Amino acid sequence: MAAGVAAWLPFARAAAIGWMPVANLPMPVAPAERNKRQDELIILNVSGRRFQTWRNTLDRYPDTLLGSSEKEFFYNEETKEYFFDRDPDVFRSVLNFYRTGKLHYPRYECISSYDEELAFFGIVPEIIGDCCYEEYKDRKRENAERLMDDQEDNKDAKLPNMTFRETMWRAFENPHTSTMALVFYYVTGFFIAVSVITNVVETVPCGSAPNQKEVPCGERYTVAFFCMDTACVMIFTVEYLMRLFAAPSRYRFMRSVMSIIDVVAILPYYIGLVMTDNEDVSGAFVTLRVFRVFRIFKFSRHSQGLRILGYTLKSCASELGFLLFSLTMAIIIFATVMFYAEKGSSSSKFTSIPASFWYTIVTMTTLGYGDMVPKTIAGKIFGSICSLSGVLVIALPVPVIVSNFSRIYHQNQRADKRRAQKVQKARLARIRISKTGSSNAFLHSKRNGLFNEALELTQLPYKMNLSDQGSTEDEKRLSKSTSLLESQHHHLLHCLEKTTNHEFVDEQYYQQSYLEGGLQNYPSRSPSLSSQDGVTGTCCTRRTKKHHTPLPNASAPAHMQPLTHTHTHPQGLQELSTIHIQPLSTSRSSLNMRVDEPAPLNCQSSQITTAIISIPTPPVTTPEGDAHLPAGPAHQNVVKVSAL
Amino acid sequence: MGALMVIFSLQPKQRRKTDSVEDELELSAVRHRPEGLEQLEAQTRFSRKELQILYRGFKNECPSGVVNEDTFKDIYAQFFPQGDASTYAHFLFNAFDTDHNGSVSFEDFVMGLSILLRGTVQEKLNWAFNLYDINKDGYITKEEMLDIMKAIYDMMGKCTYPVLKEETPRQHVEVFFQKMDKNKDGVVTIDEFIDCCQNDENIMRSMHLFENVL
């Protein structure tokens, strides 16, 4: 339950009076407020700085150090205060969490010291409020990366037992691991450069005989260039095949961008080999040669900056898209305007709107080639407006792209966003769990908490009949296990159940019962069923009417047998109205589970006398040795008898 | 061209800015200070200490001194995590907001609580009748009761045993009317209501349930 509104619980309970006239069933009795002490101030001395707060404030979060009995370890008898030898500055945030229900992360604080303090006081960092959570996560990620970088520097030693394939892959990915890798790295780099230069030089006109027309070098020294090309492609093919062999996941490697670039770089050569000097296809052949220029992209393996640039462009896709879109809009508008403005003039170059596109682009980017110029006055006016607005439209998205680039460059992108999103999902999941923890806490305590209350009310006669010393201690332990606040909240929810004659169940059980639909044998209220018949020899929690009748001696609760216990509180007005089965949900209902939860005990399904549905549920882990515990929460396939 | 667009978009912005400044001033001016402790002590049946505890809790959640309906719904919803408590909270809000000004001040809050926790059975039943009578005309009709019933069942949420069916609230209303509507005229008046409740042992007992809440 949100502790911030703990003070409003009396209001919520009072408002429950609104349900009373509507309810058909009698209400459960309210939890007794034993030793209701006046709210007192407690003093927390943290390294000399004294903080004071109400005890109730700390009790709001019973699963932390300050809210539980763990703080008693730090109690100082002489000065009557709790002394903690910790950082008082961080403690301020911790205490404010109790006061306001929100945990804040102070920006000036070091992330690891903050984490340590939170861990000491038993607070889960996931509940940091939204206002500070981004900052917290960013700092944490930076810290983690710094640690990882430090580790990687030490990690250069070759791990033993790496297969040849793995060594090769590591050598390819990280050239600094061995000399061979470095050599390979430089050789491929050299050949890429050679290949690109060859392509370029091929087209340069070499000197020629005076009466022949100029031929490009490529055609003059065909054989030489062909040999060069072949050599480069050989090297690239070998490299590609080696990478393919060494890749841990060949399919994923083949889909990666770099491998596609490799393939595109070498494919034209092979296609050219296959195709003969057929005149028809030579045009296509020439086009294919263009793809040879893609070899230059192979350099991105060698350059970190190029990769970052590529990544930036990818991540700025939306800004680039916006730029493109707005430019297109402007181009179309201005081209139309110019076309119609220049329509009148003679020998105008603006023959059609698409023809005006060229003029508009050249003008908006302030290139101004001058091959197309407007001649009419209107055309000139619109032309000048066009060039002015071009400056604006282009200048606006560019700084965004620039800042993106610098951000990514400085952050040392390593799929940061992807990791952050995964963590975000985990965080939301944990917050959701803690929120449902309150409802699960109710369901959980339903199974064992109400026996509590029965115990308290029948304490006097009960104590007289009990010969077992251990039980009274158990009572006390049970009654302390839920705070007063929680028990009152659970009582409120229980009243609502009685008003509507429906019960809260957890998600899992709801799904199952929804599926099983009509299988349920739901005996309506039959006052004749007595508690004895239904549950003798079964494990159950019996919720009985909390009337004050003395316990017969004969059916004293049997604590000793772990598998069967019969608790009978036969009382005059006992009525059993619902028999149903309640499988136990997983016991991890809250993030910080209290260690002293009453132990669930295993129960055999064969001992159920009125088995209605047997729903297989995951077995509950049982902390052992708790045979004394009279209140066992529901187990798998258990009949739970609730008396109303 | 882009410049023209920018110029056009600037103008309405300025007008909007002045509006929001005024709005902010209004919001921050809503502060309410309750009457003195002695007066409240005289008007309600709470002791001084109890009033202190109540006020501290109240002010903690609503620093401005008044609760508006949304905050009220939020607070109430935190006690019922599995269901949707907003409809019932709406009815509750109207029941607490006795002067119908859209906000519940500390006085309203404490008066309501005083009736609920320390009032006589007659007063409590009166309050409950007031809650059910949505339009405050002195009669509870079936429609009003159905609304209230649906609101209560909404608080249970989806995951219940047995599974909530569509006609469950309606059936419940029928049962209620059968019990309460003595002259079968389709509405329940305050006298029928109080009469019937006083004859019902369960209801009488449950009225005393929350007396030791504070």
From TrEMBL, chain A:
Q: Which residues form the signal peptide?
A: 1-16
Example GO CC term: the record gives: dendritic spine
Main localization of the protein described in the UniProt heading: membrane
Which Pfam families does the record associate with it? BTB_2, DUF3399, Ion_trans, Shal-type
Q: Which reaction does it catalyse?
A: K(+)(in) = K(+)(out)
- Name a biological process GO annotation: potassium ion export across plasma membrane
Single GO MF annotation: metal ion binding
Keywords (alphabetical) are:
Cell membrane, Cell projection, Ion channel, Ion transport, Membrane, Metal-binding, Phosphoprotein, Potassium, Potassium channel, Potassium transport, Signal, Transmembrane, Transmembrane helix, Transport, Voltage-gated channel, Zinc
Q: Which compartments is it annotated to reside in?
A: Cell membrane; Cell projection, Dendrite
Task: Report TM segments.
Answer: 221-241, 253-275, 320-341, 353-369, 381-402
Membrane topology according to the record: Multi-pass membrane protein
Q: Which residues form the BTB domain?
A: 40-139
Kindly provide the name given to this protein in its UniProt entry. Answer: Potassium voltage-gated channel, Shal-related subfamily, member 3
The organism of origin for this protein: Maylandia zebra (zebra mbuna)
From TrEMBL, chain B:
Which segments does the entry list as coiled coil?
Answer: none
- Pfam families to which the protein is assigned, alphabetical: EF-hand_7, EF-hand_8
One GO CC term, this protein: voltage-gated potassium channel complex
Query: Where on the tree of life does the source sit, at the highest rank?
Result: Eukaryota
Q: Which GO terms describe its biological process?
A: regulation of potassium ion transmembrane transport
Tell me yes or no: is Mitochondrion among this UniProt entry's keywords.
Answer: no
Q: Which GO terms describe its molecular function?
A: calcium ion binding; potassium channel activity; potassium channel regulator activity
Q: Where in the cell is it found?
A: Cell membrane; Cytoplasm; Peroxisome
Identify the keywords attached in UniProt to this record, alphabetized. Calcium, Cell membrane, Cytoplasm, Ion channel, Ion transport, Membrane, Metal-binding, Peroxisome, Phosphoprotein, Potassium, Potassium channel, Potassium transport, Repeat, Transport, Voltage-gated channel
Indicate how the chain sits in the lipid bilayer: Peripheral membrane protein
EF-hand domain span: 84-119, 120-155, 168-203
SUPFAM superfamilies reported for this sequence: EF-hand
Family classification: Belongs to the recoverin family.
Q: Which PANTHER family match?
A: CALCIUM BINDING PROTEINS, KV CHANNEL-INTERACTING PROTEIN 4
| Protein known as | Kv channel-interacting protein 4
Give the gene that encodes this protein: KCNIP4
